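I keep forgetting this: the sequence line spells out the residues, with the fold written below as integer tokens. I include a record here:
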Amino acid sequence: MDRMTTGDGRLQVKLLALDTFRENVVLLARDCEALRPERLRGARKVEVRGRGLSMLASPMICDDAALVGPKEVGIPQPLARRLGVRPGEMVEVLLPPPLRTLDAVRAKVGGETLSAADYDAIARDLALHRWSDIEISAFLIACASSMTSEETLDLTRAMIGAGARLSWNRDLVVDKHCIGGIPGNRTSLIVAPIVAAHGLWIPKTSSRAITSPSGTADTMEVLARVDLSEEEMRDVVERCGGCIVWGGRVNLSPADDVLISVERPLSIDTPEQMAASILSKKVAAGSTYLVLDIPVGPTAKVRDRRAALRMKKLFEFVGSRLGLTLEVLITDALEPVGRGIGPVLEARDVRAVLENHPDAPADLREKGLTLAARVLEADPNLQGGMGEARARELLESGAALRKLEEIAQAQGPSPVDGRLGELVHEVRANASGHVASIDCLRIATVARLCGAPTDPGAGVDLLVKVGEKISAGDPIYRIHGCEARDFTFAVEAAGEDGGYRVAS
């Protein structure tokens, strides 16, 4: 009889100095005593059980006894962190039962509508890293092709339930969010300190950039640490009235972080996925009132007002059923906001606004004030219509700057290099006239090609905006890079299409 295991399937943990990124991987010896490699030919995964947790992993077979022996299992860093195991511990390595949620994925690929129970199971498996990137990609693409509003609500609820959920013992906890797609639009770093300085609580959590050159968390990380635990985040909010942190560390909607890790390289960002991602994070963070910004423009994520209204209704449908008070603003997005595109450059613009510097980007300042005013209007103790005056008062008095500095100090020092990339190239106008339009998508592409946000100092610094006069040969923006190869890609892309349209 062909035996699969000897003993009880237990192996000793050997930690490997390997980073397999998001994928769970284990290394097994060719003569493994717990699980014979020939039994894996029809299986793509093994189940690893340790410390009360169970995770699926892709097995790799090793013929080098120096790396892993027959009584050992080699566990790389990501899986070791997720299981919490240490060298020498015993874990079980077994053939897993069938992953039933993949039946739901196949049904979704076929255009079927999934149930709330399906999405609950999917969110649990995602949070436990039980799916491969290929399986996640299939799910995302299937949902992009066919997903109802009720399914979006079910997925959102499931994502909330698969992680931690914060409560603040307050009736009013506010937040502001933008769906993204507009380079330089770092208004959250202006809104949060204004609102916190007023006295409302704003526990701002943000994902890292998905398809943009920088997200709120990426830009804030130039100013302070954003990788806070739930306990650390709670301490900052209770001391300062607000925070600006990365949501992944506090285990809020962990299934969303897994989806985002695959959405990023695929550049998938559908309205349904955006609604589930944003609203699951906000509800899990304990927010009760949210101002949502949907920018609309010819090169934005949302290209026309009709699509924006459809998205608005989807967010309102899901938000209302989750008990979240939601105000959706549809704003014009004809060009990037501010001048800097990339973490360091965007942090520079934010500080200029909060410092009331005369050269601060006026569009970033005014949009930040407008959004802050709408959030402040949620305060029942503030007279109706006074939100904008109060926001300006807090900005111009320096109270907002002091609050951001207080929050940054409480969160801890930044772990990243805050210097601009030393590789610099100026892109010049090829005609004289005035700037008629700036392609947001093209500028974001150039900034990402040169390394943003992976290299915080990489990015694009805009020198002229829409409506300004230029002459042929004038510099229109600078590309900053940190790595020569990335920098070359960005310069070549800008040479093919700089993203500026000039009218005589």
The chain has three domains: 10-94, 174-247+274-411, 423-503. Residues 1-7 have pLDDT under 50 and may be disordered.
